[in-house]
Amino acid sequence: MKAWLLIIGLCMAGMLQAQDKGTAAYKKAQQAYKTENYELARTEYLKAAEQGHVAAMYNLGYLYENGQGIDQDYTEAIHWYRKAIAGGHVDAMIGLGIIYQNNGASQEAENCFRMAAEKKDANGMFLLGYNYHQREMYDEAFRWFTDAAKKGHTDAMFHLAEMYAGGLGTAADEQKANSWYHKAAEKGHREAVEKLSE
Predict the structure, then answer these.
(1) Which 3 state secondary structure label does DSSP give 85?
(2) CATH number, domain at 136?
(3) 137 Rama class: left (phi>0) / alpha (psi -120 to 50) / beta
(4) Which string of DSSP letters, residue by residue, matches 105-139?
(5) What tens digit of pLDDT does each residue of 140-189 get?
(6) pTM
(7) Theoretical Cys-Cys bridge with 187: which of 24, 117, 134, 154, CB 3.0 to 4.6 Å?
(8) How many folded domains does the chain comprise?
(9) Residues 95-115: pLDDT tens digits?
(10) Which domain holds residue 142?
(11) In angstroms, what CA-CA distances link 85 with 90, 97, 192?
(12) What is the rounded distance in angstroms from the CA atom of residue 7 to the CA atom of residue 24?
């Protein structure tokens, strides 16, 4: 029994030590990224990611998606985003969803945005609503824009106002439309400001 406890303790210590190493490489990568040394950032993110650092996996995917310090490579971006998603990283869910959305894979994008939305992420809620809006599924779009707007998402506030104004997914309601335009405008949303000045 004592031998098993010792083995478990050594394993835990090894895991913590590996995580610490991952954290050190991640911090170096973050510093390199801030100074736009993307090549060093990629090297350090890769070290950290290989040691299981989930945020490093996401950042590595982001570098590949945007071609920062390396050639743009969606296959690699998707690979690293999926690994980060397996670790529960919400921004990776959104990043992968955007890649799918931009390449016409609406259903795959919806799945990614839904994962983020179900974690109560306002960006995930908005993007899920936007995905539905693009597909003219206005009832679902209205639902998700409402949830994101209530969490303070400015673009969601504007789109919700537009839906009230146009009677999409809900009954047309000029008063509610104006209320949401005002809320978005107060947060600096340019199009909302323009709508109110018409």
Answers:
(1) helix
(2) 1.25.40.10
(3) beta
(4) -HHHHHHHHHHHHHTT-HHHHHHHHHHHHHTT-HH
(5) 999 999 999 999 999 999 999 999 999 999 999 999 999 999 999 999 99
(6) 0.82
(7) 154
(8) 1
(9) 999 999 999 898 999 999 999
(10) 120-198
(11) 7, 11, 34
(12) 26
